[in-house]
Design a protein that fits this description.
The protein has 465 residues and is an alpha/beta fold. It has a domain of 223 residues: 3-Layer(aba) Sandwich (Rossmann fold). Helices cover 44% and strands 15% of the residues. The protein is built from 19 helices and 15 strands. The strands form four sheets. A six-stranded mixed β-sheet has the order 3-4-14-9-10-13, sandwiched between helices. β5, α6 and β6 form a beta-alpha-beta unit. The longest helix is centred in the middle third of the chain and has 22 residues. It is globular and about 55 Å long. The mean pLDDT is 93.
Length: 465
């Protein structure tokens, strides 16, 4: 399979799955995307309904790998990646009401949906690194969950150092401690004086700095990495096939609490592949650039507002460029023009015709903190405790009031946001055994200004093997 960049359509000659996975960001600053997406007819889709999660994972991922990796290798990676997810079912469904189900994506080692992608990514990285006898320095930005999932996946890896930037004082204490209490020589944490968008901008700048990138052997694990997005496609198939099989439905909807658009874009890929998805609800908090875009067609950056759902406190959604590329008929010059306009003027607008086509799939719903708390309380009345991000997704699903069954992606265990949970229901979820002592462990991280040169110096000093 050929992959192309959203900034240079014809730069595809040597792009293969191992290359685009290890690079993360294309050399021209664009995001990788398949030249053509595999499509499954309805018979092929339903044949997968009885597969286990690892079997389904193997079938879907293999379709994007070309000759780069064989099925048995993917299957073994899947077994190793998901062996510690829950007790038998890595992604169970819970009933909320007759028309809404909650997909629990927090049974991995760091209690968040990011584990699904990063456990896979660490193992696929190792496969390619071992083949080429190569070491790398992983650089990543996190709004909370990506960092801990990446560190858990790559800690003590002899072939990778990992450096994670998080926005200082803008992640929950539990999230921060999941990153900073890990005792591993190859793990480095930076608390950046800024917001997540600042962290993300630095990572992108470093990845397109050809000289520095080559010298430090940089790799990205952020949601811009195609391998991460691809791994998330699987649980859309897995959950949809469960309800389609047992409820004899023709199609389903998904509600996705999102800030960086990667998880929602994975659902869009599943739909393009033939999974019978009707609508994908883009559920945002008060940082509603994405939900407003799908309502108005205007993508306008504003100031980041701190909320109870901090993992979505994002303005510039990295993966949105992949969808924009398709909207603009795979025209890299137009994508560059729109993204430049975003950087210089803070906004751009698509045509009403394009918005009409997008609304055949996407609905945007914004949910503020007060309503988030109300939905958490109403869940508790049903003996369901949810974190604030899941609450945003549930509220959006209820607001959308769609006819077909809706699956809400529950992206994090409530314990990761216990202060918000306690504010809503006056009760704090119990810490899992693995994290009983997390609030007493020593932390290791460095607070740094939003200064590219200082970050470069830090990486240079901590990237040797």
């Amino acid at each position: 399979m050929n992959y192309i960049s959203t900034r240079n359509k014809y730069h595809i000659s040597d792009n293969n799955f191992s290359k685009i996975t290890m690079e993360g960001l294309a050399p021209d600053g664009g995001l990788y995307i398949p030249e053509n997406f595999p499509f499954l007819n309805s018979d092929e889709v339903y044949k997968m309904a009885n597969l286990s999660y690892t079997e389904l994972f193997t079938e879907i991922i293999y379709k994007f790998c070309g000759s780069c990796i064989n099925k048995s290798e993917i299957y073994q990676i899947a077994i190793n990646s998901y062996k510690d997810f829950g007790s038998g079912d890595p992604a169970p469904l819970t009933n909320y009401n007759n028309n809404i189900k909650i997909l629990e994506l927090y049974h991995g080692p760091t209690l968040a949906f990011k584990d699904f992608a990063l456990q896979f990514l660490s193992r696929i990285f190792n496969l390619f690194l071992d083949r080429n006898n190569k070491n790398i320095t992983i650089i990543g930005a996190t709004s909370g969950d990506t960092g801990s999932a990446a560190i858990e996946a790559f800690k003590n890896n002899p072939r990778a150092n990992i450096i994670i930037l998080h926005p200082k004082d803008k992640v929950s204490e539990f999230q921060r401690r999941q990153m900073t209490t890990v005792n591993a020589d190859n793990v480095f944490n930076i608390a950046l004086e800024g917001n997540f968008d600042d962290c993300q901008a630095i990572v992108k700048t470093l990845l397109v700095d050809k000289e520095f990138n080559k010298k430090q052997n940089l790799a990205s694990i952020n949601s811009i990495n195609w391998g991460r997005v691809l791994a998330q496609v699987v649980y859309y198939f897995y959950s949809a096939l469960k309800v389609l099989k047992f409820n004899k439905l023709k199609r389903v909807n998904f509600s996705v609490p999102t800030g960086n658009f990667g998880d929602a874009y994975a659902g869009y890929i599943a739909k393009k592949m033939g999974l019978p998805i009707n609508k994908i609800i883009i559920a945002t908090n008060s940082n509603d650039i994405l939900s407003k875009f799908f309502q108005t067609g205007i993508y306008r950056v504003s100031t980041v507002v701190p909320t109870l759902s901090p993992s979505m406190d994002i303005q510039v959604a990295s993966n949105f460029e992949r969808l924009l590329f398709e909207c603009l008929e795979y025209n890299p010059a137009l994508v560059t023009e729109y993204m430049t306009k975003l950087n210089t003027h803070g906004s751009f607008e698509i045509s009403k015709e394009i918005l009409y086509q997008l609304n055949k799939t996407f609905i945007g719903v914004g949910v503020n903190d007060d309503i988030t708390l109300e939905r958490m309380r109403s869940c508790y009345e049903k003996n369901i405790i949810v974190d604030p991000h899941t609450s945003v997704g549930l509220q959006a699903a209820c607001t959308a009031n769609l006819d077909d069954l809706c699956i809400v992606l529950s992206t994090a265990h409530p314990v990761k946001f216990s202060s918000a949970v306690n504010k809503a229901i006056n009760n704090s979820p119990s810490l899992p055994n693995k994290y009983k002592n997390i609030f007493t462990l020593n932390e290791k991280y460095k607070t740094m200004p939003n200064d590219l040169s200082e970050i470069k110096n830090f990486i240079s000093s901590n990237s040797s093997f």
